Amino acid sequence: MKRAIELLVIISLILGVSLLLTFASELLVPSKDIRLLALFYLFTAFNPRIEYYTVSSPEVVTAIVWDYRGLDTLFETSVFYLALIAGLALARKLYTETYSGEVVSGGLSTIVKTVTRITAPMIIVVGASIGLHGHLTPGGGFQGGATIAVAPMIFIVVYSTMFLLSKGVSSSRMLLLRSIGLLGIGFTGIAGFLIGLAVNKYAYVFQNLPKPGAEIGLPAYIGNVLISGTLWFFNFFEMLAVAAGFTIAFTVLLLARREG
Q1: What is the DSSP letter of 92?
Q2: Which of 32, 148, 212, 229 could bond 208 through an S-S bridge, CB–CB 3.0 to 4.6 Å?
Q3: Distance separating alpha carbons of residues 160 and 201, to the nearest angstrom
Q4: How far apart are CA 180 and CA 175, in angstroms?
Q5: What is the pLDDT of residues 155-167, one digit of tens each?
Q6: Domain segments of the chain: what residues?
Q7: Would the pTM of this model clear 0.90, i.e. be above it?
């Protein structure tokens, strides 16, 4: 009876908040005027007519994240990376003792395991598509990496906590993969600057396509394929870093829960 009352209260709260937000959205009509900064982003994101200002990416969000405010994104990724290192340092003893004395076994039924073997590669493919097409369609490296990280999480739940470890998907290897991703982001950020140094021309750090006074930049196209300069590479390395980072977090947290 007590649980039924609690459930009824929760449902009532959810419905109440939903109704409140619905009525509020009708009262708070957004302004039809677009601010000049937003207009600039929308106008320049993909506009071949303004060569030195465009990002050559039809996906404006990715253009903002990795070009207009690229340094902020780099710092956010670095903070996530350092947080993972700190978490691994705290859980290192637990990880070593659990893995060395554990016999990998158990998990759910054979039917569930078979379905997992089929769906997990699909999840990885969808995540890679979200990440690698983030400069063209909604998505990006973080979203793609988070989607890919669902696959190892499913394997942990369906098979066992130690399944990934027995297959070589250890925290040290995932940390290496995340480090490669972060280094790739850093190198991509200074690629234009390094090219400028090599040819003795001026270029910015975190420069994408050529800009006024700095005509060095990565190409918008490779052949007939639109890569939007640095955006494709940023999304690719971010996807690696996020997928590996979440896999580390899942593994360490579940091992800690198993010990507890």
Answers
A1: H
A2: 229
A3: 55
A4: 9
A5: 888 887 677 888 8
A6: 66-259
A7: no
